Each structure stands twice: as structure tokens, then as C-alpha cells.
Amino acid sequence: FLTSLAADPVTNLFQWRATNGLLPYPHVWAKETNWRQSLRAYLKSGGYQNRVGPELIKTVPQPTLVLWGEEDDVLPVEDAYKYQADLPDCVGVKLVPEAQHAPALENPSFVAQQIIAYAKAESPTDV
Fold first, then answer.
1. Whole-angstrom Cα distance, residue 20 to residue 108?
2. Using one digit for the tens of pLDDT, what is the confidence trace for 41-70?
């Protein structure tokens, strides 16, 4: 609900940050046609909050590792631990250093290392 009310100011803030080079990964979307209109429409729809919540997260049966930017400026770090609590088979939370909301873009080597370690730990051993 709040997201939809704040759609215009949030969209304006992202536009301003992108225009002034204040996003760590502006190349991802800032030059795309209609990105601003798309972001606004997504936020107006209620976006993520309307589609993903504890009820849906609790249905994920796979072992899951939560990777979260330790400096996320979009979603609070505390939300990572909400995922941990709601995922039935969460193996843990790893905070990605020097990363905000797009850790795979902002600290790809750390993210890759965590994914490789996780995959190796989850792989069945040869007998």
C-alpha cells in the first residue's frame, strides 16, 4: 500500500539519482526507453508487496541461501532475516559487503564465491 502511494516520489528520486550518477549500477536500466514509466507503474501496482509475502515464501521447498547487500538502500537488511524465518529450508543469510540493492552487480566476485560454496555444500557426494 505504501509503495503505491509513494510511487511518484520514489520514481522521481530514482530519476534524480540516475541523472546525477548516484546509483552504483545506472547502466542496467537508466538508458532504457520508458524505464521511468515502467518503474512508476510497477510501484503504483503495489509491486513486490502484492505478489511476494510470507505465505508465498513459505512454499519454497528447496534449500535456500539468502544473499543481501549489506548497504541495501531499497529494502532494509532486516528483511533478509524475515526471509530466513519464512523459508522452510533456509541455510542462512550472507550479507554482501560493498553492495546495495543489486549485490550480483555491485560485488560479483563475492556473490559468485558464495554461490559456488553453497552449491558445493548442497551437492550430493560421490560414493
1. 24
2. 877 877 666 667 888 899 999 999 999 999
